[in-house]
Design a protein that fits this description.
about 25% helix; about 35% strand; 6-stranded antiparallel beta barrel; Pdz3 Domain
């Protein structure tokens, strides 16, 4: 009996020892994970204390802004609580306190954003869209001290701007700039800024993607294509209105990105925020300080990445990579060097593309898989006046073409509108559909077989994952109404959109393949200070 009891006890002890041996690695891993999280939290606390004093709150006044009193009406229920804030910071002044006979351009609208101390000479860096069209700028340091500031340089194409501060604080240290080329997906990052006017806010997340090229809406309706901010850093750290112009830092406290925007159909963080890579900022900002502007190296082409369907149409190898040139801008470096544009239109998977042009497979010694590769290389590795070599495929034969880079045409040259003469203000929370549009020309009427005199805003491109994409809008759709308001041109579309807030539901009347359709969608936003 005693022997049996002894065996039982030994069996229990053996089982417990085996159990503990199995659980030990699990417990060790759990303790390691908790320790890592604790250390990361402690690190960001220390980094916040170090970096936050170098981050400033920026408030702007814009004379002649929209005075539409309906812009805050129709908010979704979950945004009603933001109404007092939106009116206070972004709305027009109380009409009851204004002279009823004053001219419309006497209205003043207000906005806010974020900036950071760049150097010891009183320069503050922010986004161009934060200070664009501002007539009065005030920066507030972390401890509440205010100073007036003026814009000394701005570059709409990288959405960067530099302010010069009157009687600047010499005791505030500049930020430390990091190397965005070393950033890896999955790294911990933090954003410091002033979302919804809540100064000195830090949010934490990871780098969720790299190499995102962000399109610039410059108002151009020409055929020269749209420009992009290259190699944007995508993060799931919460980014909201007011964060723009702030810093995205790594665990070393280095600025690896300038917070630029977020994408959301509900006017709140959706876990997809973008930052301009620090290496682009380091190239652009010194020029803005010294020259007031930055000249981007430019070839003068637009095109599309090859894919198996295009390759099949062109009778190329299925896995051929490269950028198919669709258009070449007249007088551009590409035009002067003899780069061949497409000369035939075809439809592939419902999308119309132009074929017959050169296929660029390398820029200097860098492999080209898409137009994004060309844009990124030009932005980070070249300057105006540099000579580059494009390796192309033309009519099945490979050849090299050398060209000299020129300066990209300015926004004014592309649009024909001076910055201080813009009729559509890019305000905080501007409603967004997610399309590129152009006015309808006689060539469009012939090409699309439209009735003579057709008007509206012709969609030339739909942004992926935008409200338009979600609503299945397509290229060559023509927007002819928003709700009950007729749209005859791009200006009509922009003007009408300025009356809405992100998050509102609208009905678009579109013309597609000769038939009129109604499409319901929820307006989003990508332009936020």
């Amino acid at each position: 009996m005693k022997r049996t009891t002894r065996k039982t006890i030994l069996s229990i002890l053996l089982t417990l020892l085996i159990g503990f041996s199995v659980l030990s690695p699990v417990l060790a891993q759990s303790q390691t994970a908790e320790q890592t999280i604790s250390e990361t939290s402690t690190s960001f606390s220390k980094l916040y204390e170090e970096v936050n004093p170098s981050v400033v709150y920026i408030s702007v006044a814009i004379q002649g802004g929209s005075s539409n009193t309906q812009q805050f009406q129709g908010l979704p229920d979950d945004l009603e609580e933001l109404l007092p804030f939106l009116k206070q910071y972004y709305g027009p002044q109380d009409q009851d306190n204004q002279d009823q006979e004053s001219e419309p351009n006497q209205n003043i609208t207000y906005g806010s954003g974020t900036g950071f101390v760049w150097d010891t000479e009183g320069h503050i860096v922010t986004n161009n869209h934060v200070i664009e069209d501002a007539t009065d700028i005030t920066i507030t340091y972390y401890d509440g001290i205010e100073r007036k500031a003026t814009v000394i340089g701005a570059d709409p194409d990288s959405d960067l701007a530099v302010l010069s501060v009157e009687d600047y604080r010499k005791d505030i240290a500049p930020v430390k700039m990091g190397d965005s080329d070393t950033v890896k997906t999955g790294e911990y990052v933090a954003a410091i800024g002033n979302p919804f006017g809540n100064v000195g806010t830090i949010t934490m997340g990871i780098v969720s993607a790299l190499g995102r090229n962000f399109p610039i809406d410059d108002g151009s309706t020409g055929s020269g294509g749209h420009y992009t901010i290259p190699d944007m850093i995508q993060t799931d750290a919460a980014i909201n209105p007011g964060n723009s112009g702030g810093v995205l830092i790594n665990l070393n406290g280095e600025v690896i990105g300038v917070v630029n925007s977020f994408v959301s159909a509900t006017y709140s963080s959706a876990g997809i925020g973008y930052a301009i890579p620090s290496n682009l900022a380091v190239r652009v900002i010194p020029k803005l300080i010294s020259d007031g502007k930055y000249e981007h190296a430019w070839i003068g082409i637009s095109g599309i990445a090859l894919n198996p369907d295009i390759n099949a149409k062109l009778e190329l190898d299925r896995d051929q990579r490269g950028a198919l040139v669709e258009t070449v801008q007249s007088g551009s470096p590409a035009d002067k060097a003899g780069i061949k544009a497409g000369d035939e239109t075809t439809t592939i998977n419902g999308a119309e593309i132009t074929i017959g042009g050169d296929i660029i497979t390398k820029i200097n010694d860098r492999e080209v898989k898409s137009m994004d590769d060309i844009i990124s290389y030009l932005a980070f590795h070249t300057e105006v006046g540099d000579k580059i070599t494009l390796h192309i495929l033309r009519d099945g034969k490979e050849q090299d073409i050398e060209l000299t880079l020129a300066a990209r045409p300015s926004v004014e040259e592309r649009t024909g509108v001076k910055a201080n003469e813009k009729t559509i203000k890019e305000q905080v929370g501007e409603a967004w559909i997610g399309t590129y549009v152009k006015d309808i020309t006689n060539n469009d009427i012939k090409k699309l077989d439209l009735p003579e005199g057709t008007t509206g805003a012709l969609i030339t491109q739909v942004t992926k994952d935008s409200p338009a994409d979600d609503a299945n809008l397509q290229e060559n759709d023509i927007i002819q109404k928003i709700d009950d308001t007729e749209i005859k041109s791009v200006d009509d579309l922009k003007s009408e959109l300025s009356k809405y807030m992100p998050g509102e539901r609208v009905t678009l009347t579109i013309l597609r393949d000769g038939e009129t359709k109604e499409v319901r969608l929820t307006l989003g936003t990508t332009k936020n200070k």
